[in-house]
Design goal:
By secondary structure, the chain is α/β, with parallel strands linked by helices. It is 53% helix and 13% strand. It is built from 13 helices and 8 strands. The chain has an 8-stranded parallel β-barrel, surrounded by 7 helices. Helix 11 links the parallel strand 7 and strand 8. Helix 9 packs parallel to helix 10. The longest helix is centred in the first third of the chain and has 21 residues.
Length: 308
């Protein structure tokens, strides 16, 4: 299993330096992270929305060690919102945030993260869009769900992410599948112990389907975060059985992965949202993309052999 090895490498300063210095790295990273600044990303937003796609934007960077860095992260999202306002795309472009980036892991981190993310959610609502709180490792989830619940009191459209590989997620899904909720279901991309998470792919896939059924049969708005063709087909079948219309759920996939499938689903009338990250602190995000799917790792290694 290469995934856990890659996830361990994502926390290694030595591996960060080695991979960052590789000549081919920027070329490969650009496949997943198409820019470092808002100016870089605006043409990407225009291109994807012109093709009938929707987006969720992520400013990468989770290694926050000071409150000042958390404030800078908040301000980076506020700058993004200023630019999105000019594009007048409304809910077609939303944002995804990791609360670790807003200081969640620091002393007093729960209150700090809530204080930093609230103005971002408020500014997003002011331009007609919203924010989804990404799920991180299992130790952060109680805080994330509490912040999500608090934000929804004033901004009920605020979404959250749940991860199929965690044992707790079926119960979380039942609680969240209520009217007005927005829930993105993913398989999970963090190294979690066997005490809290399924370790085998077939177990994770089965859990994904069970949880997706809960969301589809509930009253909320499911967001299917998967590139797996079989799970995408199952999601369509479950939506049909639940009597959902095409605008009552959506698919979400990462920028740089299965782009033809993005366009196919959109052409069929599905809401298809592309998770698009940008920024300079790309290492952790990039390594999780490699860990999630062997094909991504093979692509990277082939590039290193042919270009290194």
């Amino acid at each position: 299993m290469l995934g856990p090895v890659i996830l361990a490498a994502s926390r290694s300063d030595r591996m960060r330096r080695l991979i960052s210095a590789a000549p081919v790295t920027k070329q490969v990273v650009d496949r997943f992270i198409p820019g470092e600044t808002v100016a870089d990303i605006v043409p990407i937003v225009k291109d994807l929305t012109d093709k009938g796609l929707e987006l969720t934007m992520d400013v990468v960077g989770e290694d926050i060690t000071t409150p000042e860095q958390a404030t800078q992260a908040r301000d980076a999202y506020l700058t993004l919102i200023d630019h999105l306002k000019e594009l007048q795309l409304g809910e077609r472009v939303e944002m995804s945030v990791k609360l670790s980036m807003f200081g969640q892991a620091l002393e007093g981190g729960h209150e700090l993260a809530l204080a930093n993310v609230r103005p971002v959610v408020e500014a997003a609502a002011a331009i007609g869009t919203t924010v989804t709180l990404d799920a991180e490792d299992h130790t952060t989830l109680d805080s994330m769900f509490a912040i999500h619940e608090e934000l929804r009191k004033d901004f009920p459209q605020t979404g959250c992410v749940i991860q199929a590989y965690l044992f707790r997620t079926e119960a979380d899904a039942r609680r969240l599948a209520a009217a007005g909720s927005r829930v993105r279901l993913v398989k999970g991309a963090y190294k979690e112990p066997a005490e809290v998470a399924y370790q085998q792919k077939h177990e994770i896939d089965k859990a994904y389907v069970r949880i997706l059924r809960i969301l589809m049969e509930g009253e909320g708005y499911p967001m299917i975060g998967s590139h797996d063709p079989r799970l995408i087909a199952i999601a369509q079948e479950l939506a049909h059985k639940a009597g959902r219309k095409l605008d009552e759920y959506e698919f979400q996939m990462l920028y740089g992965i299965r782009g033809d499938e993005h366009l196919r689903l959109a052409a069929e009338g599905h809401r298809m949202r592309v998770y698009t990250a940008y920024g300079t602190d790309w290492y952790g995000y990039f390594m999780r993309r490699l860990a999630e799917k062997p094909a991504n790792l093979r692509f990277f290694l082939r590039s290193m052999v042919s270009k290194g």
